[in-house]
Every structure is written in C-alpha cells, then in structure tokens.
Specification:
The protein is mainly α and 165 residues long. It has helices spanning 27-69, 73-87, 98-109, 113-127, 141-147, 151-163; strands at 3-7, 13-17. Strand 1 (3-7) and strand 2 form a beta hairpin. It is elongated.
Length: 165
C-alpha cells in the first residue's frame, strides 16, 4: 500500500492510501500535461513576440516611407529601386538590414542622411507607444551626436522595448 499527498482546491493537503488504485496513477500524466501546458505558453509567447516584431517592422517601414516622401514621390521610389539594386535590400526588408540601409543613405546623401534618420526616428517614435530612453524633443542632430545615439541603436532599442511591452 502506498500513500500520496493530495492537494485540495482549498490548499490543504491530505495523505491518501492508494491501494494501487489506477486513478491515482494519473499523477504522472498530470505532470506531463503541466509540462505540455508550459510548452504551449512558451510557444504562444514566442508567437506573440514575432507578431509584435512584424508590427514594429511595418511601422518602421511606414515611418521611413513617410519621411522619404518629403523628398518627392519619384525621388523616394528611385531611392528604393537603388537600395534594391545596389544593396539587394527591398523596402520591406529594411528593418532586417538597418546597417545597410544607413550606409546607403550616407553614400547617397552624405551628412544629409543624418537629417533623414532623425526624421525616421521622429516618425517611428510617434507611431509606437513605448518609452524609449530618448524623448521626442531630444531627437535632433546636435543631441544625437552628443549622446552617441545612432539610427541603428535607436531602432534596436525601440524594437526591443516595443516587442517586450
């Protein structure tokens, strides 16, 4: 005869003699079900984070598109064509290739690229509702250069905070 501890819904424990009763052998099954539930929760959280990342990527592309539209639609469209031709990065792939995109901007616009990157950050900041260590009024060229904040670092931090919120 064996004994097991039974935890009731009220939190109190009783010891029960099992007499090798099969209904008490389901405890092992309960443990495996609990592990399965934990695995399902983990998968759900991973999927939720992936969905948030996709949403963030879309908002980033939107913020970039809006800022480049200020240069004129034909110029914006040509920039996207050149980005794809020279760097093999499509518009929708920009979030995964921020370094290459920034390099492209600096090769195309020189130091003027910094003004575009600031506009990208301002647009993105207005679209996402997370606290990033830079306040919107600090998104200026002089402030960025004194804090060593780069466009790439900003996007990384914004994505991290957005996806973990």
């Amino acid at each position: 005869m064996s004994k097991i501890t039974n935890f009731k819904k009220n939190g109190l424990a009783d010891e029960i003699e099992t007499n090798n009763n099969p209904e008490f052998l389901d405890i092992d099954l309960f443990e495996s079900e609990k592990a399965e539930i934990d695995e399902c929760k983990l998968i759900y959280l991973q999927q939720e984070k992936m969905l948030k990342q996709r949403k963030f990527d879309g908002l980033l592309v939107e913020a970039i598109d809006e800022a480049l539209t200020s240069l004129g639609i034909p110029v914006k469209n040509e920039l996207f064509v050149q980005l794809e031709n020279r760097f093999n990065v499509s518009k929708d792939e920009i979030p995964k290739h921020i370094d290459e995109f920034s390099d492209f901007l600096y090769k195309t616009f020189g130091m003027g690229a910094a003004h575009l990157e600031i506009k990208f950050m301002q647009n993105l900041h207005s679209k996402i509702n997370v606290n990033i260590q830079v306040r919107e009024n600090e998104l200026s060229e002089s402030k960025l250069s004194t804090e060593n904040m780069t466009f790439e670092n900003y996007v990384y931090n914004a994505s991290k905070n957005y996806c973990n919120s």
